[in-house]
Amino acid sequence: MGLVTNSKGLIDMRCDQHVLLTPKQMALADQEAVYLGVPAFDLMAAAGQAVAEAIMAKWTKRPVLVMAGPGNNGGDGFVIAEQLRQHNWPVTLAFMGHLDNMSAEAQAHAKAWKGEWHPLSQTLLNDAKLVVDALFGAGLSRPIEGQVQHMLEAVAQSGLPVCAVDVPSGLDGATGQALGVVAKADLTVTFFRKKPGHLLFPGRTFCGDLLVRGIGIPAKVLTDLRIQTAENHPDLWLSDYPLMKQDGHKFHRGHVLIYGGQWMTGASRLSARAAQRIGAGLVSLAVPESSWPIYAAAMLSVMVKPLAAHQSEHAFQQMLNDSRFNVVVIGPGAGLEGNDKHRVKHAVLETLKCGRACVLDADALTAFSERPKALFEAIHDACILTPHEGEFARLFPHLSEQSGKDKLSRAKQAARESGAIVLLKGADTVIASPDGHAIINTNAPAELATGGAGDVLAGFIAGLVAQGMTPFYATAAAVWLHGEVANEFGVGLIAEDLTDALPNVLQQLK
Ligand SMILES: NC(=O)C1=CN([C@@H]2O[C@H](COP(=O)(O)OP(=O)(O)OC[C@H]3O[C@@H](n4cnc5c(N)ncnc54)[C@H](O)[C@@H]3O)[C@@H](O)[C@H]2O)[C@@H](O)CC1
Ligand SMILES: [K+]
């Protein structure tokens, strides 16, 4: 049963827990569940009950204001209100909508509410100690304005704790972007599966703690939804992960070739060490002859190969003839000064020309900013681009953060246009493949924003590709390990620690 495809084939139901549904896909999942015989009334009852239970688990009994909107999100609100009332919570219900326009199940649940109905009004906040936001969920279709906007602003001003039903109202579940104003929540309870908007920024900051609750929708409805996006988790790639074999040999674990620059000698060395630590059998650094002593003195188990100044391009090309180098990393510390840029571009294009898997980072991306097309025309499917937002904007100016598009769509479009796997970095790193699949990473702590962390990541990816992992899943695994190591290490992290602390995390993974 296929959900998320990769170049190798299909991810099966083992990892269906981690798929992300757009609000549209969620509506289809609901419909399919009803088609399979689960009554819509029961789905809504289960959804409301799950939220009520989460509220009672998180907060002590207190006066609650439930704000119920005009659609099924509001229907959930009526269930929550009635459930809390039955547990002797003091509940005030404010409804904005017309009963006649609601779905049959929402009407039925609204009629089952035993308390009073109030129109939405800011004065209701005076007596409340908790707000339940059941105004809009998956059906939000335009920016919030007018009276609801004022109400949400008053909720924010009040400082009261908020529990959001499905998504904080005003948040686009597909993109993580705000449509007008958003009601920031302390707890969000969503149903069946997470939505991309819960994980992408700024959406993630609006959700508070996020809980996913089953409401009786069978997992088999996922089969026909053409799901393309998942949250990063070892379940996605562990079966692909190159765990060491007892009878393994270093030549079976690949050979990474890293291009080193003249001046910023630390960056490529960080990549080299990272590739070694994650298990590449051999790692070589190709460096300018003039900097060779610096590199060679610092690297013990990495082979450092000098590129003679008068024929460095030719020498690198010659090196690529050696088919034992199965992955090439270009970019960290590669340099853009003077003739460096020309050399870097040449190295990238030669690497691509011979079909070698490659990780292109930093200067290797910026080197093509005047004519990204020259890079895209050369790219093949084992090529991974690892830009931060600045580098990304240089290659894809129409897809920059300022374009107004969300990060998931931007990364997917960039992958499609370039033909490469695109890893768009950030606290919500997105890994997108040209075939439309994408993984959102969620385990990166703030400590990762430190110089050299990207160089280490490039090395991790290369090291995994060298050992035979498919580029898409190697990238996902590397990003996850990178985040996990940073979490494990905690405060005071510098890039070197990412490599040194990796073995602990690998041990746990094993
Ligand atoms: N069977 C189902 O479909 C289930 C749905 N559930 C709940 O239903 C929600 C989705 O329900 P709906 O599709 O009815 O959508 P919503 O309840 O999110 O809202 C739809 C309504 O809001 C109006 N609207 C949209 N944007 C607006 C804006 N900016 N200002 C004013 N009005 C606006 C629409 O015209 C429509 O009347 C989910 O988020 C979830 O909470 C749950 O009850 C589980 C089962
Ligand atoms: K909501």
UniProtKB/TrEMBL annotation:
Residues 233-509 form the YjeF C-terminal domain. PROSITE patterns: YJEF_C_2, YJEF_C_3, YJEF_N. It comes from Marinomonas aquiplantarum. Binds 1 potassium ion per subunit. K(+) binds at residues 73, 133, 169. It catalyses: (6S)-NADHX + ADP = AMP + phosphate + NADH + H(+); (6R)-NADHX = (6S)-NADHX; (6S)-NADPHX + ADP = AMP + phosphate + NADPH + H(+); (6R)-NADPHX = (6S)-NADPHX. InterPro entries: Carbohydrate_kinase_pred_CS, CARKD, Nnr, Ribokinase-like, YjeF_N_dom, YjeF_N_dom_sf. Keywords: ATP-binding, Isomerase, Lyase, Metal-binding, Multifunctional enzyme, NAD, NADP, Nucleotide-binding, Potassium. The gene is nnrD. GO terms for molecular function: ADP-dependent NAD(P)H-hydrate dehydratase activity; ATP binding; metal ion binding; NAD(P)HX epimerase activity. GO terms for biological process: metabolite repair; nicotinamide nucleotide metabolic process. Homotetramer. (6S)-NADPHX binds at residues 72-76, 137-143, 166, 267, 333, 388, 455. Catalyzes the epimerization of the S- and R-forms of NAD(P)HX, a damaged form of NAD(P)H that is a result of enzymatic or heat-dependent hydration. This is a prerequisite for the S-specific NAD(P)H-hydrate dehydratase to allow the repair of both epimers of NAD(P)HX. AMP binds at residues 425-429, 454. This is Bifunctional NAD(P)H-hydrate repair enzyme. Its cofactor is K(+); Mg(2+). Residues 26-223 form the YjeF N-terminal domain. Its EC number is 4.2.1.136, 5.1.99.6.
